[in-house]
Amino acid sequence: MSQVAMPEFRYDFGNSGIDADHSALAMILEALEQVCDESAGADCRCDVCPEKKTRSCHGLLKDLCGRMQALLLEHFQREHELMNSLPRSQTTKAHCERHRRAHVSFSTRYNLAAAKLNDCQPAIGARELESLVLDWIRGHALEFDAELSALLNRPVGDRQRRA
């Protein structure tokens, strides 16, 4: 399938949990490329594949979608716990509020996209899901996760003085 290339993406923001989540997400995104081995043709039509292969592709897509959803929920929970550990200041409150709203917004978009996967060609669904998540993680990680890591990496006294 491989229509969406994995970006050159910097996963190391200085927090082992967040960084590990980003790496795990990249692995799931790469696995989405295995949903269709292109035997369905350039237009990704399942009607040219044997029924067993089509069922296999649907099953793989459903599995990867579930794994990605679980990882995203764990990632969001981890970040919420980290945000709760920050000193309460205008800077951290503003960041946390925006960050949490971004999680809710993306969760809604992801769930809507995932709900449509049963009714689509698996290769097309995988490509759309991959594109949605890549677009999100590129912006989210740079806007929110890098800032969260910077807030967490400040010395405790410095966090309180600057906040």
How many domains?
Answer: 1
| Structure class | mainly alpha
Tell me the major beta sheet: none
Could you report the average pLDDT, rounded to the nearest whole number? 82
The shape is elongated
Strand content: under 5%
Domain Hemerythrin-like: 18-148
GO molecular function, one term: metal ion binding
Pfam families: Hemerythrin
Family: Belongs to the hemerythrin family.
Description:
The protein is built from 5 helices and no strands. The chain is elongated and about 60 Å long. The N and C termini lie far apart (47 Å). With 163 residues, the protein is mainly alpha-helical. It has one domain (16-162). It has helices at 16-32, 51-85, 90-115, 122-153, 156-162.
Name its key features.
single chain, mainly alpha, 163 residues, 5 helices, disordered N terminus
What secondary-structure arrangement, pairings included, does this model have?
Blueprint: H1 16-32, H2 51-85, H3 90-115, H4 122-153, H5 156-162
Keywords: Iron, Metal-binding
Family: Belongs to the hemerythrin family.
GO molecular function, one term: metal ion binding
Question: What is the compact description of this entry?
Answer:
By secondary structure, the protein is an all-alpha fold. It has helices at residues 16-32, 51-85, 90-115, 122-153, 156-162. The protein is 72% helix and 0% strand.
